[in-house]
Amino acid sequence: MRKARKLGWAIIALCLLLAPVSARAQTAWNLEQGKSVTAMAMSPDGKLLAVGSSDTHVYLFDEAGKQIAVMKTGNVVTSVGFAGADRLLASSDDRSLYAFGLGGELLWKQDLKKRVEGVAPSTDGSTAAVTVQNSSELLLIDPADGTTQGKASLGARAADVAAAPGGGYIAVGGKDQNVYLLDGSGNVLFKAGMNGTIGSVAVSDEGRVAAGLTTSAVVLLDRDGGKLREIAVLDSVKDVTLTPDGETIGAADYAGHFYLISSSGKTIWQTQVPAPATQLAFGAKGETLYGGTENGGIYSYDVENVVAGAESAAAQKRIVQIAAAAAALLLIAAGLYLLKKYNRLSVFKRIWQAKWIYLCLSPAFILLIGFMYVPALSGLYHSLYEWNPGGRSSFVGLANFRRILSDDYVGKGIVNLGILIVTGLLKAIVPPLFVAELIYHLKSKRLQYYFRTAFVTSMIVPAVALLLIWQNLYDPNVGLINRFLEAVGLDGLTNSWLGDPKTAIWAVIFIGFPFVGILQLLVLYSGLIGIPDELIEAAKMDGARLPRIIRSIHLPLLAGQFKFLIILTLIGVIQDFNAILIVTGGGPMDSTYVPALQMYYAATKFDELGYASALGVSMFFVILIITVVNMKFLRSSQE
Amino acid sequence: MPAPVRATSAPRTIAGLPMPSPSAVRQALLIGTLALLIVLTLVPILFMFYSSLKSNSQILGSFWSLPSPPQWENYGEAFASIWRYVLNTILYAGGASLLVVGLSAVSGYVFAKKAFPGKEFLFLLLLAMMMVPGILTLIPAYVWYEKLGLTNTPLAIIIAHAAGGQIFGTFLCRTSMASVPSSLFEAARIDGAKEFTVFARIVLPLSVPILATIFIMQTVGTYNDYVWPLLTIRDSSMQMIGVGLTQFTKQFGITDKGVQFAAYSISSLPLIVIFSLGMKYYIQGMVQGALKM
Questions:
Q1: A534 half-sphere exposure, CB direction, 13 A CA radius
Q2: Domain edges within chain B
């Protein structure tokens, strides 16, 4: 017992160690609902943040997140950048390039005839690199008036373009998986192949290039195209950015992580926000990091603080890990010591001797653990999460369970479930008992066998086919039931049985009439056969007649069978939604919903896997309670 | 068959013949009631067969009359659209059942006749899973199979049924094999038989009935599966019969009710074969399962 408790504590401690430590954003604000951050840039003095949005606007914020100006373009903003201290350029899906003053006034607009995919002005305002759709040429534009100063041919279409703050370098991530570095006037300095599709590039004043790949990696290149570092991140990289000195890389990935990576390739800090990250920008000296997400969230982080925090957290984590390792070693040592003390070390010898046995059992237990325990535990665990497999899952505590309580479909489902359980119990006991008694009282053993077999014969139709046949029997026009009612002159009773919310649940219950369940019949019948003949004979001698024999001998002696059937029915009815899914799909309206069906729909129709798991877990606990109550109380009262 | 019995025995009582004791009347009543219940139970099946031989206009126009002429070609059309589902299901069910039988036989024997450290714990681990209802694991299992890349492959069905079925199978095998006297194995071992020989030559032959029971229970269980293939199999060419029956009319644009019923009849054929070969084992398995709870 003591050992078990110790083990329990150890497991709890381990869980605490493994629990994700989430760092909070320092400040965060939001674009309005439904807008996505599509572009982001920081002014050279680090005072203003320009945010391009999917709602065609460019918003200008100050450091604190106060909105200063709004500028309108013709379509989704694809890219923004500051050109000098007095203007910013924005490209839009309406094939135009815009220049705005910092008060929001339009300075000029240039129609480029093709969709503008990216604009990257140097922050000193000397030049701006522009890429357009389906073109392998890079346009160099004068931010002052929008005239084309020059062109550079790359030989491949560009996925992303970036300019160094000083205007000395332009980096292009090509769709051919090459990174190109150009000087300020458009001469290609190098071309370096990546082993993945390039999502984003950034370049520093020294010509250091960072490229974010969709294969979940960030690559840092030096001025000559040599690969300095390759850093693995957790998901497809959406944006990378560099501090002006090129010493720190910022990266954002699709799972909503923001990273700060040092030029030595070490991830110095990371955090996760609850939406796919799209954009990143550093403040002027790299002291602030701004991140934007697909659902319009904008986060700002104080780089120095978060790095310090991350370092101390890492140090803490290391200490904890060391402590845990030491504790584990200590535990093992203590265990060995105890075994030695009580002279039980031979257990290892016996384990070794039994190696073939373990080998024989291994396939069974690999299947058991890998495909039964893992899903069961995963269900228990993820019922506390908003579960997005393959993406980001966030811990929501008991929110899923609270939602069950306020879910109208579940409420309706529980009412229906109550009806199904009561009728299910009646169906499981009364008709099978009746038939079992009838068969039991047949004199001819041969007839007994024939009748038993005849009832079992109904199994030859697959369960789904039987349900579909019943669905047909209920058909308002060509169904057997309505036709039969018409034939016997009860036209008034015909109904669209499954289509009427008032009758639908009862129609589902009536499926399987006259409810002679085969398992139930066989269980009760073999129970009857098991009753010793002497008992019956003795009762008959005392003058007991049949009803009395059934009441006083059969029913009490079948208590075990009844208990078994009741449990089986309860567990079965709570879980079963096949019939309802096939025959009515929960309708009409919500009239035939059951909680299990709502679980299935939550998972398949609405992709709410955490909520579905919580429903499954709730039903599991109900079933568990039923089973435990049955084992503890019913048995002891019977014996 | 039972109807004439009533016809002959009932009038006799009314006639007041000396010997037709009340018990004979009672027997006749019993038989009559049972016959009625069996007819009612089988109504959907009879209706299925009856309607499978009719065309739409025959069903609409002459609902109660016999199918004349019988539309046997309904079966041809139904077979052409669902044979693939039936074949898939037979293959999956056969594969899963063989796996279950193999795993259960080995584990059952080990748990019944071998002593090794951790035996109780491992058996408890197995037993505990019997308490976990499918409703808990359904959705997480789907996500897990998806993650492992098993969805939309036959393995999704086979592995799931093998992993789930072996638990109860092992349980049945253990009980059954425990009753085989150990002296039998000892004698063989003294004669120099290897462990494998003991298992293959003594344990397996003695366990044929229980293994047959497990095989048939598992096959029927897999054959009737609906929700799991609905979740995990997307390609129609890999789908199982349960899901297939609910989808084939739309997929092949079948509007004839008769063809639908013919398809239901065809889908029953494999089960008819199984039950005619091993009804005894199936009943045994059901009753045994019930009594073990």
A1: 0
A2: 2-52, 74-292
Distance CA A503, CA A485 (A): 16
Query: Which residues does chain A have within 8 Å of residue B195's beta carbon, measured at their own beta carbons?
Result: 356
User: Is the distance from CB of A61 to CB of A52 less than 8 angstroms?
Assistant: no
Six-digit token string for B219: 């096959």
Q: How far is CA B221 from the centre of its chain?
A: 5
What backbone phi and psi angles, to 5 degrees, belong to B133?
-75, 155
Strands of A372-482, DSSP E: 385-386, 394-395
- CATH class of segment(s) A27-313: mainly beta
State the CB neighbour count (10 A cutoff) for residue B280: 14
Per-domain residue ranges for chain A? 27-313, 324-394, 417-599
Instruction: Give me the count of residues in chain B.
Output: 293
Does the structure show a pLDDT above 80 at A72? yes
Tokens of A566: 């009741």
A352-377: average pLDDT = 92
> How far away is chain B from the Cα of A219, in angstroms, using its nearest Cα?
28
Over residues A233-278, the pLDDT tens digits come to: 888 888 888 887 778 888 888 888 888 888 888 888 888 887 788 8
Calculate mean pLDDT across residues A425-446. Answer: 92
* Contact at CB, A357 and B223, closer than 8 angstroms: no
pLDDT digits (tens, 9 = 90+) for B96-130: 999 999 999 999 999 998 888 889 999 999 988 88
Sign for the CA dihedral angle at B117, B121, B124, B125 comes to negative
In sequence order, what DSSP letters do the residues of A616-631 get, joined into one string?
HHHHHHHHHHHHHHII
Give pLDDT tens digits for A19-42. Answer: 444 444 456 777 776 678 888 888
Mutation for B interface: A358, A372, A458, A545, most B CBs within 10 A: A372
**Which chain B residues in 15-44 lie under 8 Å from chain A, judged by CB atoms?**
23, 26-27, 30-31, 33-34, 37-38, 40-44
Token output for A225: 């195209």
The first and second tokens of residue B239, run together, are 């789908």
Would you say the CATH fold of A417-599 matches that of A27-313? no
Q: Are strands A267-272 and A277-282 parallel, antiparallel or unpaired?
A: unpaired
Q: What is the pTM of this model?
A: 0.67
pLDDT in tens, B184-237: 888 888 888 788 888 888 888 888 888 998 999 899 999 999 999 999 999 889
CATH number of A417-599: 1.10.3720.10
Reduce the DSSP state of residue A112 to 3 states and report it: coil
What amino acid is encoded at B234 in this protein?
R
ipTM beyond cut 0.90: no
| Identity at A230, one-letter amino acid code | E
A592, A359 contact by CB (below 8 A): no
CATH, range B74-292: 1.10.3720.10
What one-letter code names the amino acid at A247? E
Question: To probe the interface with A, which of B137, B146, B196, B219 has the most A CB atoms within 10 Å?
Answer: B137
Q: Residue B290: is its pLDDT beyond 70?
A: no
**A618 vs B contacts (CB less than 8 Å):** none
Short-list A241, A252, A229, A260, CA closest to A201? A241
In whole angstroms, what is the distance from residue B256 CA to residue B258 CA?
5
